[in-house]
Design goal:
It is built from five helices and 15 strands. The protein is α+β, with helices and mostly antiparallel strands.
Length: about 240
């Protein structure tokens, strides 16, 4: 790691170029906030507005020399209108009980996470899952993290990890029961977070990075309208 630059007195570090995890035959460079930097909800929120993302205890953003494919995306919740498929998804999951809980460091939560990674992301960087990985990736961060359980007749079927920012929510990660295909639980959890942000009077749901050429990211553009951050400003994506 090497020193990269200063951003509003925040020290940034950069990785060496490494193989991109999303697009084959490309190299990626990531900048991240020095782990020694004191971070609170206000600074975290400001960095999110500038296109940074949280993974575990790290705040980062892509900074690739020859590629700008990773584009920060967020849903302006006051403008969001669900499409027909999303309305059906919402109705299909009306039977779920939803709980906001303090922790997910239990066997029940980890076992669901492990099934999800093994069935849905066996080709990804988080495979094979481990308890230490689970704890470090989905940890509490700067007092901002909230955990949401979705249960069907008491059985845990999905968990959304969400960070509360000063003017929005950040959808950090969702994992769910891979056998519950008909419920479209990934989409439902996003719809719930959009509605939760609206109830809280917040402006946006941050969705991480959207990559047009990456099929795994295609679902994000289905939540319309969506804002993308290009050339240091947020603007609605043309449909």
């Amino acid at each position: 790691m090497s020193k990269y630059s200063q951003l509003d007195s925040v020290r940034l570090l950069a990785t060496l170029p490494h193989p991109c995890g999303y697009l084959p035959d490309r190299e990626a460079t990531t900048v991240f906030v020095d782990p020694q930097t004191p971070v609170d909800q206000r600074l975290y929120s400001r960095l999110s507005e500038l296109g940074f993302r949280r993974s575990g205890a790290y705040l980062y953003r892509p900074q690739c020399a020859a590629c700008q494919a990773c584009i920060p995306a967020r849903v302006p919740v006051s403008l969001f209108v669900p499409n027909r498929k999303q309305r059906r998804c919402w109705r299909r999951n009306r039977d779920l009980d939803i709980f906001h809980v303090e922790t997910i460091d239990t066997d029940e939560h980890y076992e669901l996470y492990a099934r999800y990674i093994e069935r849905r992301h066996a080709d990804g960087e988080m495979y094979p899952p481990s308890r230490d990985q689970f704890r470090s990736f989905l940890n509490q961060a700067w007092g901002a993290t909230r955990y949401i359980e979705f249960r069907a007749r008491g059985r845990l079927v999905a968990v959304a990890v969400t960070d509360l920012l000063t003017a929005g929510l950040s959808a950090i990660y969702t994992f769910f029961e891979p056998d519950e295909v008909k419920r479209s639980l990934g989409s439902y959890c996003i719809l719930y977070q959009i509605e939760w942000a609206r109830r809280l009077g917040l402006s946006s749901l941050y969705m991480g990075y959207w990559i047009e050429q990456c099929q795994k990211m295609a679902y994000k553009s289905q939540f319309q309208p969506i804002e993308l951050r290009r050339e240091n400003r947020w603007a609605l994506k043309a449909r």
